[in-house]
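Troubleshooting log. The previous run stalled partway through. Resubmitting the same two chains, unchanged.
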Amino acid sequence: MSQKPPTYLGGEYGMRSWLLTLDHKRIALLYLLGVTFFFLLGGVFAVLVRLELLTPAGDLFQSETYNKLFTLHGVFMVFFFLIPGIPAVLGNFLLPLMIGAKDLAFPRINLLSWYIYMVGGLFTLYAMLAGGVDTGWTFYTPYSSTYANSHVIAAALGIFVSGFSSILTGVNFIATIHKLRAPGLSWFRLPLFVWAHYATSLIMVLGTPVVAITILLVAVERLFHVGLFDPALGGDPILFQHLFWFYSHPAVYIMILPAMGVISEVIACFSQKRIFGYKFVAFSSLAIAVLGFLVWGHHMFVSGQSLYAGVVFSLLSFLVAIPSAVKVFNWIATLYRGSISFEAPMLYALGFIGLFTIGGLTGLFLATLAVDVHVHDTYFVVAHFHFVMVGGTVMAYLAGLHFWWPKMLGRLYPETLARITAVIIFVGFNLTFLPQFVLGYLGMPRRYHVYPLEFQVLNVLSTAGASILGLGFAMTAVYLPWSLRYGKKATPNPFDARGLEWTTTSPPMAHNFEEVPVVSTEAYERDEPEVVHV
Amino acid sequence: MSSRTEGALAHHFETLEQQAEAGALGMWAFLIQEVMFFGGLFTVYLVYRTLHPAAFVQGSAHLPIDLGTLNTGVLIGSSLTMALAVRGAQLGRGKNAALFILATMLLACVFLGIKGLEYSHKWHDQLVPGLNWNPGPDADAHLNLFYALYFVMTGCHALHMLIGLALMVVVARKAWRGGYSPGNFLGVECLGLYWHFVDLVWIFLFPLLYLLGRHGPHS
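Second attempt completed without errors. Output:
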């Protein structure tokens, strides 16, 4: 014990040692850089979209440019930030630590998946620089295959390539969770973060290849015009929508399940309690993963799908609410009589619970056939999925990033500033997206850059909210790097949390643990028995 | 730090057995995604076959059943040689494994050669949608869909074979040099799993494209 081994950040320095690293913790940081870059890029396009919508007339951009702006916003945010965000950064860093392993099962494949992700991102960047894409992030045919006058193939190729990064990450996580758990760490002792990532990996492996082949078919159709999605030649454009949403709806759960895993960890830590109903929360992740594959048709209620299919998809979509609600109720039951403190990660987690609940409940509105006909393709839908994606996934990402920041980089973030920022982001978020529910209900369609005068007040509110939200993100982008130099040095377990990752040094050594940990307690077990006063 | 550990056991595993189990599990998970990849294609095939049965009967009847059958035999043979290669590695006979992999590569090349011959016939008959398409006056209006799927499906399959060939070069070299042992032949095993999967895809493609509905009412 006299000579401490160097941390994973020390030991070796220089570009080469990072770009050829096989250490899951370093690869997680590489992902952090990539994901942050694409988040900023997606953010820039969001700013431009909100600026244009400040006034009813098309002052800043032509409609074609506007189409490209919201497409690039969607493509970068969905495929290069939301999908890899939590799994590839936090999951990559934490899974081996949480299960007491030295690394992921396949370190080389892990590094490969980062390179594949970056190559995919660069393809899409090329598409952007060469003139952009204007199909919307959904690439609906026959628009994408026949009519769009933009760089569809380069963008689609970028998404196709980055999909393989997702698949490889999923395969790696599955093998790791099955085969590399520390002695004594049975399935029902796993942290819920691990369960959530297991469910996510299943979706990555089962869903992503379907969108890969779909994108390939669009590229074939666009290059050679063989008629695959062209009704004039016998093809069926609706078939594209089926194939696309077969992946892209489960992809929503690739984004939200890891977020739920983060929230379980944060809630347990800052309530100083075990998670209430551990097995229900664990199995609800799997239930969401399974049900997620059966609901894709709810994107197509007005696409010409048969009424009976619509009814079945509507019913199945309602079912997803059950495991989601199981999680929310169990988190709240965990909070009950907990010893709660309000550090920044907890503020984000509490925000998540509220915002995700609103996002989820408005999802039920949209799953209702008759209501969907009214609000389909309006700002109601935009508000709904931003509540889930930003209010859910981004909030959880920030919660997790703050929670594990001391573990990952060995420095504490500035607590007061972080709490203020969390509140700013919460306020900014709500001001941005609550008015959009109203706008959508009143009938403002999405994807238009001009709108009638009566919608202006709500749009100004939304843009004002976006600037507050942007301020919050900017503050985070300043103080987190600042803390690397000026933050207090972190102890191994600064938040008095439970879990193997908190038993090693901050930051961890290259091989994670001095010796293989042996687990003899349940997840989140606290030493003191809980005293219940009646 | 990530210095290469001596021997076959990577630093993050406790035993060779654990390492082999993790590797095999990873390979199976990867094959599941392959099933979903081709599953998407089979779905498209199913939908268009149902929508335009006449076009599919006509297209199917025009495919050379003799070459298709021959290729099926060749590919099943290559599965046998690959299984023997895995057996060789399992018993610690590295050179034997390498030679069987080489035999598998030869059969794979025969398959691809015959496939190429079929493609060239299609080009000659002007039956390549988008590039060289002139199916004649008697052709069904939607014949293009059958041939588009024919080329995409067999093309994806051939691409998987090419990737398999590249992997075989690497694994055969390592096997020849004694890189595997009875307790440590994961590379050969995973290659075998992959190759059997590629064969299995063809076992579905062959009847779907060449056999089913050849003698339907519209042929």
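Takeaways: The first helix of chain A runs from residue 15 to 19. Chain A touches chain B through 53 residues (CB under 8 Å).
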